[in-house]
Amino acid sequence: QVQLVESGGGVVQAGSSLRLSCVTAGRTFSTVAWFRQAPGKAREFVSAIRGSSGNTFQADSVRGRFTIVRDNAKNTVYLQMNSLKPEDTAVYHCAATNRGASAYLRTSYDYWGQGTQVTVSS
Fold this sequence. Notes:
This protein is an all-beta fold and 122 residues long. The protein has strands at residues 5-7, 10-13, 18-23, 31-37, 44-50, 56-58, 66-71, 76-81, 90-97, 111-112, 116-121. Helices cover 0% and strands 48% of the residues.
């Protein structure tokens, strides 16, 4: 019954920018995160934002390039991706939880979107 809907993916050249959107259906979550899964690799943590404090978390691989923000009026969490690299190519998934667990772990999240494809060419 809980749906997270991602959008904003596409095919871009290295150095370009994309903004991914995750609509959270008007619900309040303790944490909303982005994970990604590249071909042949496990799903990995990208970034997260806390619902209460607004504190953000990011993987070392994207620090300084990606920014997670939220627009409560639109019930949407965004992932602004700048200076994209070919290694950023993956399916990006939005995830959410009401539990106060680690922001970094897949097991912390109860709700997942279907994903949006990001492809970065060299």
